[in-house]
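TA notes, week 10

Several of you asked for a full example with nothing omitted. So below is the full record: structure tokens for the whole chain, then the designed sequence directly under it. When grading your own attempts, check the secondary structure regions first.
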């Protein structure tokens, strides 16, 4: 990775994570935990195979990730974040908050869309509003796929598919799901616009209403 050659904490941080794709690799590993190379490639549409390999090697050298052999039935090497890599969670949450207004117009015709990216909106928007010991498990189902999201005060984790129990499931376009999770639209408004909601909405409504009120305070 190239260096800015500046004795500055911001520049030194960007020396490590400023290259294209690095923070998005961290995003996928924060979402799904230890992942195979093929899993990462799936979650990073548009990245060249050789570039992903180069980025992983550089991130391992910088101490952001480690590579280990996974036991059966995985039977393939997996990559996982180190403590230093996981410390980027707050950085990504801040970027997500900052970037949310850029999503209001919805995806462009050339944008890739994946359900885990929508699910990550819930982390900065809702996590801090959960009480200690409180947990929300929800499903997201879009045209592009589905994920099961577990959210508590410690963070956000995901699994592909909807195996396992959930409190509530949101089904619809990614833009509508993201709008509801961020509090930019209420769940009732999202339903009127076509979002399907199944399950117990009590906690999700409480959290998203609070998120919406907070967005209004900053408007």
């Amino acid at each position: 990775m190239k260096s800015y050659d500046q004795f500055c904490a911001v520049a030194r941080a960007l020396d490590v994570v400023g290259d294209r794709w690095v923070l998005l690799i961290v995003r996928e590993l924060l979402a799904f935990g230890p992942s195979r190379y093929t899993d990462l490639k799936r979650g990073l549409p548009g990245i060249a195979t050789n570039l992903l390999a180069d980025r992983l090697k550089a991130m391992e050298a910088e101490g952001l990730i480690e590579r280990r052999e996974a036991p059966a039935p995985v039977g393939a090497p997996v990559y996982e974040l180190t403590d230093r890599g996981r410390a980027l969670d707050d950085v990504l949450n801040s970027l997500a908050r900052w970037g949310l207004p850029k999503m209001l117009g919805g995806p462009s015709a050339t944008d890739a869309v994946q359900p885990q990216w929508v699910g990550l909106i819930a982390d900065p928007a809702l996590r801090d509003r959960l009480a200690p010991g409180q947990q929300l498990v929800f499903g997201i189902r879009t045209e592009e796929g589905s994920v099961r999201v577990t959210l508590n005060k410690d963070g956000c984790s995901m699994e592909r598919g909807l195996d396992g129990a959930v409190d509530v499931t949101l089904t619809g376009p990614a833009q509508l799901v993201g709008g509801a999770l961020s509090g930019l639209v209420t769940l009732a408004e999202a339903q009127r616009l076509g979002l399907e909601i199944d399950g117990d909405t009590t906690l999700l409504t409480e959290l998203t209403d609070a998120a919406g009120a907070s967005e209004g305070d900053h408007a």
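The CA atoms of residues 55 and 187 lie 39 Å apart. Use that as a sanity check on your answer.
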